[in-house]
């Protein structure tokens, strides 16, 4: 019976590989439309990245591969990794923090107060990209490109400038790590999907939201929260990924064209980030949102202490080569936003080589 079951599994695996190759061959001859899913709205940094990739995919592959963007997608929200591996979608945009269960390296861009500018965000992403690729590969995923987000702040009904202002606030965060950091300062914080935020705010179940407030998400927040506390908690990133087996099944001549489309989309995202941050600031001003930059020294100290404790915890859970990324990050200059990550950055530091 064991041999029969093993034989069936091998047969299914061989058949799946055959079908994947056949599908790729057909795509090369007749063209194929891929669904690229995101759990964020189209008018967000991640959404714009998906749209850029869709356009680049058609252009770089001469229409052999075309993309269809699907926003606020249930498949991307519930389990983006499974959605790709099961073939429900061909590629998916996934927030870095949502991959923390896959490997702690994906917590890197959301480490509190480690990054202070969009230039530093790009530098860290360049240094970490090989580690991201390796971790995704172990999960059966292929990294297409990294998509940056504007910095995250704390949206609230009332200004949050002191430790007392933060205590007992019901706060939505975007991952468990940020919930722990704010929880350590007395807030009632929980990681929740972005789709749930609007209804929870309207029903009075939330007092604050940790978010960049980018694009359409910002419009939702502005309708309920009149304060943006610019604490620059983190500069997170998203990843657009596909199945590694699907990538390998593509015709050899098609893969470089897919890579070119991904590189084009990533370069556009980094180049557009400063203007996107400015546009979000203007939108907040027009909506009458109060941007609270100065905060009480005691709150600042406690935030950074809680953040540093989170960094120490992360360092204790990652291998030395991943921990070295932070040290290298502190001593390398930022790359130009218009070009892919320079080889010198990718090779810098022990453990960051492909």
Q: What does it look like?
A:
The chain is an alpha/beta fold. It folds into 2 domains: 2-149 and 237-273, D-Maltodextrin-Binding Protein, domain 2 (3-Layer(aba) Sandwich), CATH 3.40.190.170; 153-233 and 288-314, Bacterial extracellular solute-binding protein, family 7 (D-Maltodextrin-Binding Protein, domain 2, 3-Layer(aba) Sandwich), CATH 3.40.190. Helices cover 51% and strands 16% of the residues. The longest helix has 32 residues, at 255-286. Mean pLDDT is 86; it is low at 1-29, 334-339 and 343-354.
β-strand number: 11
Rg calculated over all Cα atoms? 21 Å
How would you characterize the largest beta sheet? 6 strands, mixed
Q: Structural class, please?
A: alpha/beta
- Bin the strand percentage: 15-25%
Under CATH at level 1, the class of the largest domain stands as: Alpha Beta
Q: How far apart lie the N and C ends? A: 42 Å
Q: Average pLDDT across residues?
A: 86
Identify the CATH architecture of the largest domain: 3-Layer(aba) Sandwich
CATH homologous superfamily heading of the largest domain: Bacterial extracellular solute-binding protein, family 7
Tally of DSSP helical segments: 14
Low-confidence stretches: 1-29, 334-339, 343-354
Relative helix content? 40-55%
Annotate the secondary structure layout.
Layout: H1 2-30, E1 32-38, H2 45-60, E2 65-70, H3 74-78, H4 80-85, E3 91-95, H5 118-138, E4 141-148, E5 153-156, H6 163-166, E6 170-173, H7 176-183, E7 188-191, H8 194-202, E8 208-211, H9 215-222, E9 227-229, E10 237-243, H10 244-249, H11 255-286, E11 290-292, H12 297-317, H13 320-329, H14 343-347
Parallel strand pairs: 1-2, 1-3, 6-7, 6-8, 9-11
Antiparallel strand pairs: 3-10, 4-10, 5-8, 5-9
Helix pairs in contact: 2-11, 5-13, 7-12
């Amino acid at each position: 019976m064991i041999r029969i079951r093993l034989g069936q599994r091998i047969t299914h695996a061989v058949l799946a590989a055959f079908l994947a190759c056949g599908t790729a061959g057909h795509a090369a001859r007749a063209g194929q439309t891929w669904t690229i899913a995101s759990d964020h709205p189209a008018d967000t940094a991640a959404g714009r990245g998906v749209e850029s990739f869709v356009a680049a995919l058609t252009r770089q592959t001469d229409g052999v591969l075309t993309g269809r963007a699907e926003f606020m997608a249930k498949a991307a929200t519930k389990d983006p990794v499974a959605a790709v591996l099961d073939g429900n979608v061909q590629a998916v945009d996934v927030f870095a923090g949502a991959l923390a269960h896959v490997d702690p390296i994906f917590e890197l861009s959301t480490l509190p107060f480690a990054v202070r500018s969009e230039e530093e965000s790009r530098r860290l992403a360049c240094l970490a990209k090989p580690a991201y690729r390796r971790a995704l590969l172990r999960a059966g995923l292929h990294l297409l490109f990294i998509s940056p987000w504007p910095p995250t702040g704390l949206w609230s009904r009332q200004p949050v400038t002191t430790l007392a202002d933060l205590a007992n606030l019901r706060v939505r965060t975007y991952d468990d790590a940020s919930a722990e950091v704010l929880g350590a300062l007395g807030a009632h914080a929980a990681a929740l999907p972005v789709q749930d935020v609007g209804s929870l705010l309207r029903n009075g179940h939330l007092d604050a939201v940790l978010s960049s407030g980018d694009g359409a998400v910002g419009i939702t927040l502005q309708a309920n929260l009149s304060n943006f506390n610019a604490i620059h908690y983190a500069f997170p990133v998203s990843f657009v990924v596909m199945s590694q087996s699907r990538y390998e099944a593509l015709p050899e001549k098609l893969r470089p064209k897919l890579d070119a489309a991904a590189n084009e989309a990533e370069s556009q995202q980094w180049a557009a980030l400063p203007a996107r941050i400015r546009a979000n600031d203007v939108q907040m001003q027009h909506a009458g949102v109060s941007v609270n930059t100065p905060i009480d020294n005691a709150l600042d100290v406690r935030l950074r202490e809680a953040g540093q404790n989170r960094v120490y915890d992360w360092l204790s859970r990652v291998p030395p080569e991943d921990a070295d990324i932070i040290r290298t990050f502190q001593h390398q200059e930022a790359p130009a936003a218009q070009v892919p990550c320079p080889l010198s950055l990718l090779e810098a530091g022990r453990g960051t080589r492909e």
